[in-house]
Amino acid sequence: MAKSSLDLLLKGSSGQNTRGLLRIVILLTIAAAAVASRLFSVIRFESIIHEFDPWFNFRATKYLVENGFYSFWDWFDDRTWHPLGRVTGGTLYPGLMVTSGVIYHILRFLTIPVDIRNVCVLLAPGFSGLTALAMYLLTCEMSTSPSAGLLAAAFMGITPGYISRSVAGSYDNEAIAIFLLVFTFYLWIKAVKNGSIMWGALAALFYGYMVSAWGGYVFITNLIPLHVFVLLCMGRYSSRTYIAYTTWYALGTLGSMQIPFVGFLPIRNSDHMAALGVFGLLQLVAFAEFVRGFLPGKQFQKLLTSMVLLTFGLGFAGLVLLTVSGVIAPWSGRFYSLWDTGYAKIHIPIIASVSEHQPTAWPAFFFDLNFLIWLFPAGVFLCFQKLKDEHVFVIIYAVLSSYFAGVMVRLMLTLTPVVCVAAALALSAVLDHFLVLSKPSPESQAKANAVDAKSYQGMKSPIVGIYSHFSKAFVSGSMTLYLLIFVAHCTWVTSNAYSSPSVVLASRAPDGSQMIIDDYREAYYWLRQNTPDNAKIMSWWDYGYQIGGMADRPTLVDNNTWNNTHIATVGKAMSSREEVSYPILRQHDVDYVLVVFGGLLGYSGDDLNKFLWMVRIAEGIWPDEVKERDFFTARGEYRVDEEATPTMKNSLMYKMSYYNYQSLFPSGQAVDRVRGVRLPAESPQLNTLEEAFTSENWIIRIFKVKDLDNLGREHSNAVAFDKGLKRKRASKERALAF
Amino acid sequence: MKPWNTLFLLFSLLSGVIAAKPSADRFQKYQAISRSSPIDLDSAAFEELTTGPRDYYAAVILTAMDSRYGCLMCREFEAEWHLISRSWNKGSKPDGLKVVFGTVDFDQGKSVFQKYMLQTAPVLLMFPPTVGPFAKLEADPARFDFTGPMNADQLYSWISRHLPDGPKPPLVRPVNYMRIVSGITILLGTITLFTVIYPYVLPIIQNRNIWAAISLIAILLFTSGQMFNHIRKVPYVAGNGQGGVSYFAGGFQNQFGLETQIVAAIYAVLSFSTIALAIKVPRMEDAKGQQLAVLIWGGVLFGTYSMLLSVFKFKNGGYPFYLPPF
């Protein structure tokens, strides 16, 4: 009875329905797992926005929700980049903020009272669930195997390479961009396969959404034309390709130009020229194909081919000429530095200084992808076996993005989707053979022989199947083991490496209990409570967004880094002597200076460790006044102790970091725990600044810039006078006592 | 203040008269020797050029060209230095602005190195004029230390900053006709060669296996950190301090050249085993042989993965997972 009812469920049309239902249940479970695995930080800490950039996105979203869409579009922000301000509405990718704004309003409309902050915090996990679904659709296009799509969705859901940018609270552009990337690729594959205008238009629509959400859209802009170009080179031109590409290009370009920040870039920038060039080439090829049908002789066809090549060559030369003459902007620096890897270090130190722009060492690949990294080449090989149009796409994507991921840690994010696709293809190919219970019979062999007669290459001999149960158990058992390790690995990595908000730090007390270090928020709230509403805060650009978001005070520079000179000015003020810095501070209306100092706690991401970048960036603008060499001792060491160079000791950054630090220790015992050195016995002396606030663990120190002296003296004189006066008075008192 | 200045001028004039020929003559003389490339100076010539009153700038590079000193930077920069000198001397300059470019090699000018207490080479010294319209009060040379490989543009911009404001001749890299001609020849040759062997090459270009091999090798190289080696210029291997060789760099952010190759090989073995299990094994008709193949490939997969995990555990001390054999 039981058996027959099972049969009823699994066979025939109701069997199909059951499978469909199972599939949906599995996908929903995967999406739930994807969301759940990203909630570590909310459970451990609280529902808080993470890191740096998300704070700006959060602030912009609040502005959008409060002031409405149109004023958001025209937003000029005078509380950043003082005194320049920033045309924020025209210099950001609005997709993220608009998305969460829409979600917020829908939830409000449904009378669900929700705070905009919680929408922002949970946006990334929510979209990662959608990414898993998009991944399922994309992989199903690649393979006939029923398991490949589900495996890919599961991989995508929990692989750390994607989790790293999408934990709860990491409210950044990538949070929605990866979903859009995968989904656009799915629509594109659909369009190429079907040659349908509808799918092409949908691809263009989501491409436009992607453009509005993330600067990484350039990756799609170049990958799709490359796919088409390779197809043309392989002699696989078809009307399907033509329809899909022209639809996508025309609509997608129009769509992308609606974003103010992108504007006319798609027709004026080298990054986008590949798409235009392939568009032109495709028209030529289509025309040639059309004419070819009417031409009789071979000669004409040859002539036609050479005509096409010639026209394409001329067009290419024209593009080069336009680029050289400056009508078309050359490759943008960020993009160019991917090809010429030494470029950024020499010409754009501000890009090279960001840690996520460093090259990737191999442990990072394994850390982020675990066993997918070795399934990945196997999956690409399987694509070569089938090599339909969509497999060509996977191959190109795989090679290109593994190069990019090798050059820049951050681009691991674009590699992750294709790794999941390829790994799922490989693993499903193994499991589909080894998870079949029935033994191969002679008839099925004969049938396979007949069917596979026309297949080629490695597939020459027909598929037979696996004979022994032991083989099946062994392979599927070990694969299950690898999968279990993968899940454990992902959980471990997510919980240990990617779930720290970096605004709030956690460490272990000696007795093993958790210690929360909340210095950042303590200091930002001090600023919010104790300073006037328009007090200008100067800090290194890393903290600009956080000060804007949490302290709500105007800043000089922030993570937007649009004005290198302004950043260099701050760098110069930090790295010069007080006498040089003070006029700079006055000229920029600076009221408070904020530095991050990790010496007491051993927090290595502090300003003294970033100091050389400030010096380098300042040196780029004022090579005569700031010299990197002066910050190194004669033996070329970067030191902060007794033997630090005079330039180092007199720099504002050094003085602010160690001001009064010695008073924490018995005399002569002051130790910097980050750099592991003993400091000079004397505390540095500050003349033009006074200490305003130091957080509990000394991570944040805030100094108030003194006003001009009442008596018109130099600050150093005034301070000396004050000190002298005290000493005099003291001696007088002593004299009186005698 | 003023009397001192005059006194100083008088003194310098006197000493100039005693010590050397008038500076204009000296400038003419060196200009004649140089013929637009930098002048090779020995200690005496260097002294003559840089002491006493002068109405010209003297930019002198101190290098060690001989291969004994192993100064790679000196030799690399030699051509660039010539380029700067030639560009300046051939270009149009503002009136009265005179610059002499010179080179002191360590072999000829040991005393110069001693005088400025130089430990390293190359170093550029830039002596401002002491008389004439561009005279500066302090006659101490400005010094430029080379911290890494430089090109002419960077140094030339540094020199320009130390010269008075105004138009300066641009840095002109000579057109390398040889290179253009050879480039065109090679291009034409390639096209010809290609047309000739096209029928033979076509099957190779269209061979799917070759493209598969290229793609897979590229992927394996990139995912094993080859680009990191290339950008950071990591050592191939390093000693472990006890006379042996350590194959794996300690720490998560470091790696050696050999290490990445080992990792790439591990990945390759793992991928190949997977491919064998997915494609080859199900096509075997012999039941016994298939059993054996499954055991071998499955075993290889298991062992190698276990090794990979142990290597990763070595790199990242706190990593909790492992597989039995290693």
Automatic annotation (TrEMBL), chain A:
<keyword id="KW-0479">Metal-binding</keyword>
<keyword id="KW-0464">Manganese</keyword>
<dbReference type="GO" id="GO:0004579">
    <property type="term" value="F:dolichyl-diphosphooligosaccharide-protein glycotransferase activity"/>
</dbReference>
<protein>
    <recommendedName>
        <fullName>Dolichyl-diphosphooligosaccharide--protein glycosyltransferase subunit STT3</fullName>
        <ecNumber>2.4.99.18</ecNumber>
    </recommendedName>
</protein>
<feature type="transmembrane region" description="Helical">
    <location>
        <begin position="197"/>
        <end position="230"/>
    </location>
</feature>
<feature type="transmembrane region" description="Helical">
    <location>
        <begin position="144"/>
        <end position="163"/>
    </location>
</feature>
<dbReference type="Pfam" id="PF21436">
    <property type="entry name" value="STT3-PglB_core"/>
</dbReference>
<keyword id="KW-0808">Transferase</keyword>
<dbReference type="Pfam" id="PF02516">
    <property type="entry name" value="STT3"/>
</dbReference>
<comment type="pathway">
    <text>Protein modification; protein glycosylation.</text>
</comment>
<feature type="transmembrane region" description="Helical">
    <location>
        <begin position="119"/>
        <end position="138"/>
    </location>
</feature>
<dbReference type="InterPro" id="IPR003674">
    <property type="entry name" value="Oligo_trans_STT3"/>
</dbReference>
<feature type="domain" description="Oligosaccharyl transferase STT3 N-terminal">
    <location>
        <begin position="22"/>
        <end position="422"/>
    </location>
</feature>
<dbReference type="InterPro" id="IPR048999">
    <property type="entry name" value="STT3-PglB_core"/>
</dbReference>
<keyword id="KW-0328">Glycosyltransferase</keyword>
<dbReference type="GO" id="GO:0043687">
    <property type="term" value="P:post-translational protein modification"/>
</dbReference>
<feature type="transmembrane region" description="Helical">
    <location>
        <begin position="21"/>
        <end position="43"/>
    </location>
</feature>
<keyword id="KW-0812">Transmembrane</keyword>
<feature type="transmembrane region" description="Helical">
    <location>
        <begin position="364"/>
        <end position="384"/>
    </location>
</feature>
<feature type="transmembrane region" description="Helical">
    <location>
        <begin position="175"/>
        <end position="191"/>
    </location>
</feature>
<feature type="transmembrane region" description="Helical">
    <location>
        <begin position="307"/>
        <end position="331"/>
    </location>
</feature>
<feature type="transmembrane region" description="Helical">
    <location>
        <begin position="242"/>
        <end position="267"/>
    </location>
</feature>
TrEMBL record, chain B:
<feature type="transmembrane region" description="Helical">
    <location>
        <begin position="177"/>
        <end position="198"/>
    </location>
</feature>
<feature type="signal peptide">
    <location>
        <begin position="1"/>
        <end position="19"/>
    </location>
</feature>
<keyword id="KW-0472">Membrane</keyword>
<dbReference type="Pfam" id="PF04756">
    <property type="entry name" value="OST3_OST6"/>
</dbReference>
<protein>
    <recommendedName>
        <fullName>Oligosaccharyl transferase subunit</fullName>
    </recommendedName>
</protein>
<dbReference type="GO" id="GO:0008250">
    <property type="term" value="C:oligosaccharyltransferase complex"/>
</dbReference>
<keyword id="KW-1133">Transmembrane helix</keyword>
<dbReference type="InterPro" id="IPR021149">
    <property type="entry name" value="OligosaccharylTrfase_OST3/OST6"/>
</dbReference>
<feature type="transmembrane region" description="Helical">
    <location>
        <begin position="292"/>
        <end position="312"/>
    </location>
</feature>
<feature type="transmembrane region" description="Helical">
    <location>
        <begin position="262"/>
        <end position="280"/>
    </location>
</feature>
<keyword id="KW-0732">Signal</keyword>
<dbReference type="InterPro" id="IPR036249">
    <property type="entry name" value="Thioredoxin-like_sf"/>
</dbReference>
<dbReference type="GO" id="GO:0018279">
    <property type="term" value="P:protein N-linked glycosylation via asparagine"/>
</dbReference>
<comment type="function">
    <text>Subunit of the oligosaccharyl transferase (OST) complex that catalyzes the initial transfer of a defined glycan (Glc(3)Man(9)GlcNAc(2) in eukaryotes) from the lipid carrier dolichol-pyrophosphate to an asparagine residue within an Asn-X-Ser/Thr consensus motif in nascent polypeptide chains, the first step in protein N-glycosylation. N-glycosylation occurs cotranslationally and the complex associates with the Sec61 complex at the channel-forming translocon complex that mediates protein translocation across the endoplasmic reticulum (ER). All subunits are required for a maximal enzyme activity.</text>
</comment>
<keyword id="KW-0812">Transmembrane</keyword>
<comment type="similarity">
    <text>Belongs to the OST3/OST6 family.</text>
</comment>
<feature type="transmembrane region" description="Helical">
    <location>
        <begin position="210"/>
        <end position="228"/>
    </location>
</feature>
<keyword id="KW-0256">Endoplasmic reticulum</keyword>
